[in-house]
Amino acid sequence: MAFREINSKMVEATVMPGQKLFSQRGAMLAYKGEVSFTPNMAGGQGGIMSMIGRRVANEDTPLMSVEGSGTVLFGHGGHHVQVIHLAGDTLCVEADRLLAFEGTLQQGTMFLGSQGGVMGMVRGQVSGQGLFTTTLKGHGAVAVMAHGGVFEIPITPQRPVHVDPQAYVAHHGDVRNKLSTALGWRDMVGRGSGEAFQLELSGNGAVYVQASEEKL
Amino acid sequence: MSTYGTPGGPTVLDPASLPVDDNVNAYTFCVELKGSQWFLQKGKMIAYYGSIDFNGVGHGRLDRLVRTSFHSPLHASDWVVAEGSGKMLLADRAFDVNSYDLEDGNLTIRSGNLLAFQPTLALKQSIVPGFLTLIGTGKFVAASNGPVVFMEPPIRVDPQALVGWADCPSPCHHYDHGYMTGLMGGLRALTGLGGASGEEHQFEFVGAGTVLLQSSETLMAEQATGAVPPDAGVPGGGGSHTGPSQPAGVPRLPGQLGDLQRRFGL
Q1: What are the pLDDT digits (tens) for B75-101?
Q2: Nearest residue in B to A23, CA atom
Q3: How many alpha carbons lie under 13 Å from residue B209 in its C-beta half-sphere?
Q4: Is the ipTM above a cut-off of 0.85?
Q5: Domain boundary assignment for chain B
Q6: How far apart are CA B174 and CA B123, in angstroms?
Q7: Backbone φ and ψ of B183, nearest 5°
Q8: Under an 8 Å CB criterion, which residues of B touch A?
């Protein structure tokens, strides 16, 4: 395992020669051994086209690549850290929530409008994802940041999960999400419950929810 | 975490059930005073039971105490002495709080992180600006953003994640020269394009000892450690320094414009 959780806010990554890690720039707390940190101008994997894609999609986070041999401690801003292991499936997460991820994962950008058209775009606006989100695919581990503790809710075909868009962190697996609205006349006159929008996730997989409605 | 979901609602504490010199929860520490004294930084006491006096440091009666265990005379106004009997709760802006025991040891800690200490310890200003050193035997309480992690040297630490160190003889700066020099490094420094990795400068610790890290790069508000005498040779003392006229305190790194200027004779 590349990442080991030391406490709720810190992970330890083992770096070995030939293995590459990507991490958010400035998130290194300490390291042992011979490890080098190189800022990644492209902001991640792929060539110049992926970089432009990310810039356009506003999903470019300052990343750095970590190479060498040793152990590195990561943590950032006092945010809680959750390590997610991927076994071939795709994780959707906002780029600025990425603390570190293994180089074995394929990084990509997804247009939210491709899932549900205009409603997908509206959903992106409500959940703070914007029009695009970052995907990570393959085998490996990801360390994701969240405000407050994180818990994982499994999604099964029989049991769709409703999540407050502001508390949504990430999801993986074969999951369809749609925005369900519970708008009524009360919302129109300003006496709503404040929970008019929910993210409904259905399919097979898991969703990660943070114990706070604050964005990073 | 363990206090969540306890049957019958939240635990209600009274003077008898409050822990003695231990954490109430991750963010609050309880100190028991039995005619003894504690030094604490101003504003860190949140509640107390019993009869406890809080006196500013440096008043006549406490002069002897200050002489033995307080060695930052110019910093004295930021500290108070708690004296009496009772129980006192300490906390700091919901940061994690922990107590540490020293046995005939020494520990250097970032000035903003220290909350309180027993007078059996001597508090001295570190040569490293912004840090305080505790020497002797006793208990002290310190805050950190996230739990503190103890690491053994050799290790290189992000400057903002460093809380303190014990017994380490050699805290020093480490620069990633491979990153900052060369054509790309110069370009980056000149144009800002490509950005810094944010990790081209660390504190390096070698030798035997322990290094204390916090889990985040969010610093506690800096506490003034007090000025040092303005003598020559005292770091941060502002004494006369010899050598080329460089602004003190701002290290000039290779690859910055200044070097180019010199190279081209500008």
Answers
A1: 667 788 888 899 999 988 888 888 888
A2: B197
A3: 21
A4: no
A5: 145-191+200-216
A6: 28
A7: -65, -50
A8: 145-147, 149, 151, 154-158, 161, 176, 178-179, 188, 193-200, 202, 211, 213, 215-218
